[in-house]
Amino acid sequence: MANNIDLNLARTISVAPMLDWTDRHCRYFLRLISRHTLLYTEMVTSGAIIFGKGDYLGFNDEEHPVAVQLGGSNPDHMTQCAVKSQEYGYDEVNINVGCPSDRVKNGSFGACLMAQPQMVADCVKSMQAAVDIPVTVKCRIGIDDMDEYADFARFIDVVASAGCDTFIVHARKAWLQGLSPKENRDIPPLNYERVYALKNEHPELNISINGGITSLEQAGDHLQLVDGVMMGREVYSNPYILADVDKRFYGDDSPVLSRADIVHKMQMYIEQQDAPYFKPWHVARHMLGLFQGQPGGRVWRRYLSQHGTGKQPDPDLLMNGLAAMQEAATQAIEFQSRSVG
């Protein structure tokens, strides 16, 4: 494994793969906040890796521990991608069996594969035979009318028998008919008990839970019953929530960068980018929530949004945004002080 990382420990807290969001810029940013949280790429299809012209697997060495999530169902193609992922230096390769979008369903991967556990098992077996890094599966608790615990347990049993010992479970079923991907993130009710029951029946498996987790307190409660917690949208909208993760869950008392320090480092990161189509907004869009709940936080978001897009974005976007935010925060504090006085 890359960097000799203990992935079972790293999986204690992880950030979910989020399509169009957890790209390499986002992951570099999040790594500045937490050293230990396991990060996942956004899903990349096996077809894109094998037949596409772009570099879909590139990442920054600073991102470790980092896992790649693959979408696909052809064992040969998935194995080729797993081998390439290991060559790139990823710490884990994860199979997407949870995404409910039509684009994914039509490609015979994602949540629809829960109805075809043997196909997933065939991919796992082939991939594990070809790589040394762990091959894991992210799935739902059910799909459509296959919504009984017995259906879920059968899927896990078949895939585990092929050699997969790590499952990340989104504790909602997916409706492949009638609900959009966005609705599938909210409308089907959460059923954490089903994930707990799975861990209770299979103590030998490493089980992480995902879905609707919005605080580290909730994460701690889940960790009494499962091995790991994967957080998604809450981390994206409030990334500095990760600032307490290393000490709380990994016993690391190392100093945590302040929000302002992170802005300085990300400005330098922007200045180092040399891709022909790169724009500061490609980084800044991931940082809108950095000052959530802080004085001046709205000014920060507004400045980045107004000056980071368009034909002539501000090259010093983050530093100027920080200055505007700090000025607004100072004015707010002075106004509050006068009001109290």
Overview features:
DusA; Four Helix Bundle (Hemerythrin (Met), subunit A); oxidoreductase; tRNA-dihydrouridine20 synthase activity; eight-stranded parallel beta barrel; RNA-binding; 341 residues; 16 helices; 2 domains; TIM Barrel; tRNA-dihydrouridine(20/20a) synthase; 9 strands; alpha/beta
Q: How does the SSE layout of this entry go?
A:
Layout: H1 7-10, E1 13-15, H2 24-33, E2 38-40, E3 44-45, H3 46-51, E4 66-71, H4 75-88, E5 92-97, H5 102-106, H6 117-130, E6 135-140, H7 149-161, E7 166-170, H8 181-184, H9 192-201, E8 206-210, H10 216-222, E9 228-231, H11 233-237, H12 245-250, H13 259-272, H14 281-284, H15 297-307, H16 317-340
Parallel strand pairs: 1-2, 1-9, 2-4, 3-4, 4-5, 5-6, 6-7, 7-8, 8-9
Helix pairs in contact: 4-6, 6-7, 13-16, 15-16
Protein name: tRNA-dihydrouridine(20/20a) synthase
InterPro entries: Aldolase_TIM (IPR013785), DUS-like_FMN-bd (IPR035587), DusA (IPR004653), tRNA_hU_synthase_CS (IPR018517)
Family: Belongs to the Dus family. DusA subfamily.
Give a short synopsis of this structure.
InterPro entries: Aldolase_TIM, DUS-like_FMN-bd, DusA, tRNA_hU_synthase_CS. With 341 residues, the protein is α/β, with parallel strands linked by helices. It contains 16 helices and nine strands.
